[in-house]
Known about the structure:
This protein is about 45% helix and about 20% strand. It is built from 3 helices and 3 strands. A 3-stranded antiparallel sheet has the order 1-3-2. The N and C termini lie far apart (about 50 Å).
Amino acid sequence: xxxxxxxxxxxxxxxxxxxxxxxxxxxxxxxxxxxxxxxxxxxxxxxxxxxxxxxxxxxxxxxxxxxxxxxxxx
Length: 74
């Protein structure tokens, strides 16, 4: 039986491929998902600290991986 890929996994895969990108780009890269599914999954991932949702302008958001503390200069 084929294993179903979760919405969160699809979003993480898109981000690994493209790095940080805007929320609309994530939606375009996951054509099998609705905008609502992407938004809710991004919200869950953000609340868990797996990704960051950063305002990048009026009504637009960038989705990015959080920076690792050990890679930050002191």
